[in-house]
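# nightly structure sweep
# worker-07 picked up a monomer target from the shared queue
# config: single-sequence mode, recycle default, output format = structure tokens
# input follows
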Amino acid sequence: MGALISRLVKPALRHGLAAIAAAVILWLALIAPAAARGPEGIADVAEQVIDAVVNVSTKQSVDMNSGTPDLQPGSPFEQFFEDFMKKRGKEGQGGQGGPTQPQPPRRVSSLGSGFIIDAAGYVVTNNHVIADADEVSVILNDGTTLKAEIVGRDTKTDLALLKVTTDHPLKAVKFGDSDKLRLGEWVIAIGNPFSLGGTVTAGIVSARNRDINSGPYDNYIQTDAAINRGNSGGPLFNLNGDVIGVNTAIISPSGGSIGIGFAVPSKTVVPVIEQLRQFKEVRRGWLGVRIQQVTDEIAETLSIKPTKGALVAGIDDKGPAKPAGIAPGDVIVKFDGKDVKEMRDLPRIVADTPVGKDVEVVVVRKGKEEIKTVKLGRLDDAEKKQAALTPKEAAPESNSAVKKTLGLNLSGLTDELRKKNNIKDSVKGVLITGVDQNSPAAEKRLAPGMVIAEVEQEAVGSPADFESRIAKLKQAGKKLVMLLVVSPDGDPSIVVLGIQ
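# output follows
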């Protein structure tokens, strides 16, 4: 290209500026088609890695008389059952088919994607590709079909590890560092869209760290490389031929690509796959806290500048956080040396920390930083517990008369009111019996039946106690008050109200 430019520009210099302009226009016309095609390296990368990308074939035997089975969202069997049930419904409406007849069990199959990460036969794919299957097979790029064993799977990140055995050498690919991806960087997706076989598409990184509310560890790479049905479980490559993501989800009203696809980043994939390979399960760290977002109001109340961290709304009685001295109202700003910039950072950091490790946790309490040491527990997926809050024991309630403060009607917790509102014995505090619909409390969705357990991180025992606390805050010039509010079943949350 340099020699061509020289041949164009040198003669132009002898004939004046007009000739130079003509030469530049001709040069731009020559390079524009190449730029539109993207970088030349795409073909080289595709040729280099295509043999490591596989189709994942799944089969399932189902009872067609029991209605649509409970399939995981995104399962390749979803479309089949939707079509079948629509057809069955039409036949059962007294039309041509008459009454619906019993159906024999049927064998259904579908195809997803995956890729080989080890020549020993280890294959990575999405959990939803194989979650409902009775049989799983891997189809290599040359058409060879191999029976696959499910080594392990993780529903929280939607990843699964398969194992195949063969006498033939297998092509494997390696993981790259997804943290080094830049916005606008070219990426390549290879998979099995619409069961057409190995297909290569290219695009750019549209965004990083996307949260699409699919799970607690959302941290997706967004790309406009075409990803369609059947691409699930396939690899997303950079131009070095390294896997920097696993294609998992798309946003589309039709099921086809509209340029919004999501891949689990390799930084998330690698530790999950390593644990599945070693333990056949994922062993995640567990802190035992219930958290919520730190809003600007909460940050102002707690003197946190700038707004950051994860607000502790509740503590599990049996979790590691309680003996370490972490309490509701604390804001966790650093965990094991890693900054917690926002709420959703904390679950990922905790999950990636080794079980049993003694971890330093930096919390902000009443405007001051404190360091707590936590011996990290293990998150047990078999036990899905709700955080149970046990506030400090409050003084016995001697006056259950209703007080009205901050737009709230408040009452002491009597046995009768506990029974009437189905409030657990472990819940202590002041009962909300009414809410002024024009008050800030209504805007924050406080409702009768909820219990205010703490005011400014201190237990409250009666409506009079609550009223006294608010009066003192007013005298001190405070504009906001932070409340710990507990639902009847013990589910806590932090609410900040303006003091009027």
